[in-house]
Design goal:
Elements: E1 4-11, E2 17-22, E3 25-29, E4 38-49, E5 51-56, H1 76-89, H2 94-107, E6 110-118, H3 126-137, E7 143-149, H4 160-170, E8 174-178, H5 187-201, E9 204-208, H6 213-229, E10 237-240, H7 250-263, E11 266-268, H8 280-285, E12 290-291, H9 309-319, H10 325-342, E13 358-361, H11 366-372, E14 378-381, E15 384-388, E16 391-392
Parallel strand pairs: 1-4, 5-6, 6-7, 7-8, 8-9, 9-10, 10-11, 11-12
Antiparallel strand pairs: 1-2, 2-3, 4-13, 13-14, 14-15, 15-16
């Protein structure tokens, strides 16, 4: 691990100072340089903690492959069924493609990734194995968590539950679920299976909840009830998307937010332009931990996305009408500390003793950095430079 001092940087947009790094961790903030330390001059750049990609689908991206002409839709199941077939016809190799997206993501300043990886009766656990190989190969560049994800449903395709158990035994970090009512049409059975796997393997859960309005609120109530009954607290339960929290019934949403906070269940929001989304400031004010991510990028679902989490802060700000600098800073915090808390990572942040996972970037303040999204960033992972100017410092296939 390198020992160095980064001088003339402004942590969180504050006064210029220095950060001393020893054995990959922050040993001091401020103070004189010790003799013999390598000096890296930050030239007045901002310093923020490494960005956190808390919701990706690394096994699905077509990044680096020939352009895919999308004619699929409009229903969710249309996209799911097409994607399952396309994995074979397009030759989507989970290890190759996940490595490509890791390089792209790290190039933009990300130091932590949570990815949902498909498990189904056609691909089995091959995608899990492919992404696990990527996780091992790039352990020095990014910390990764893998969620075993039954994208095509857990109960509607017999054999999936057994494959999910295999994925957990292979080393997946959390159990995924999806739309207990509208996908499997058996909310009790679906949640019995998801939470049963989590209890058996001692892992958390992360459930995709696209269901809108009252249906989504009903599923969310069941998830909260189950988590409380099993004593699963401290962000070991995450609800991703949570579109039902964007419904217009303010009283109902505030009640759900209070229940989520009391149960210590985190939510993941993308600020999705096409759907109602959780109210960011109200959720945080209620005490709910909120993270964010890119979701799928450049895949059979859609052509958009470049895995830049700083752009996601901007999207969250625009989607939630955040205009004051202090509000935009909250959106950025969702992309750093919020995602880390959502993933259960306590060893994080710009503080003495924490891993030296940093992004240096230009800007007079944090809000300017969010809205301008400068390309010329420098990313450190445990004190080593992993990316400069939008490009990872390592090669992938």
């Amino acid at each position: 691990m390198p020992n160095l001092i980064i001088t003339n940087i402004r942590p969180h947009g504050g006064a210029e100072t220095s950060i001393t790094i020893k054995s990959g961790r922050i040993a001091a903030i401020g103070g004189p340089a010790e003799p013999g330390l390598k000096v890296f001059d930050g030239h007045g750049l901002l310093a923020i903690p490494g960005l956190v990609e808390a919701h990706a689908h690394l096994d699905k991206t077509l990044y680096g492959m020939p352009w895919y002409v999308n004619k699929v839709g409009p229903a969710l199941l249309d996209k799911i069924d097409n994607e399952r077939a396309s994995k074979r016809t397009l030759g989507i190799d989970a290890h190759r493609q996940s490595a490509r997206q890791v390089a792209l993501t790290v190039g933009h300043g990300t130091t932590h990734i949570r990815t949902h990886v498909d498990v189904d009766t056609e691909c089995g656990v091959t995608s899990i194995e492919g992404v696990m190989a990527t996780k091992a190969a790039h352990a020095d560049h990014v910390d990764m968590q893998i969620v075993a994800f039954p994208q095509s449903g857990l109960l509607r395709r017999p054999g999936t539950l057994e494959l999910m158990d295999t994925a957990m035994r292979l080393g997946a970090d959390a159990v995924g679920g999806i739309d207990p009512c509208s996908m499997d049409r058996d909310p009790k059975g679906h949640l019995d299976a998801v939470f049963g796997l989590a209890q058996r393997h001692g892992k958390g859960v992360d459930i995709h909840l696209h269901e809108p309005g009252e249906m989504g609120a009903f599923s969310m109530d069941l998830i909260i009830e189950r988590a409380k009954a099993l004593g699963m607290r401290g962000q070991s339960v995450v609800i991703s998307h949570a579109f039902c929290l964007g419904m217009p019934d303010v009283a109902a949403v505030d009640r759900l937010l209070a229940d989520l906070a009391a149960a210590e269940i985190a939510i993941l929001t993308l600020g999705t332009p096409s759907r109602p989304v959780p109210p960011l400031l109200r959720a945080r004010a209620a005490g709910v931990v909120v993270g964010t991510g890119s979701d799928g990028i450049r895949d059979t679902w859609g052509p958009y996305g470049d895995a830049d989490i700083l752009e996601r802060a901007k999207i969250l700000g625009m989607r939630n009408n955040l205009r004051h600098d202090t509000e935009v800073e909250q959106a950025l915090d969702v992309c750093t500390h919020g995602g880390a808390k959502m993933m259960g990572i306590s060893d994080y942040g710009i503080a003495i003793g924490k891993p030296a996972d940093l992004v240096l970037l230009p800007g007079s303040c944090l809000t300017e950095a969010v809205v301008s999204r400068p390309v010329d960033r420098i990313t450190f992972k445990r004190g080593r430079i992993t990316a400069r100017n939008g490009a990872a410092a390592f090669q992938v296939p």
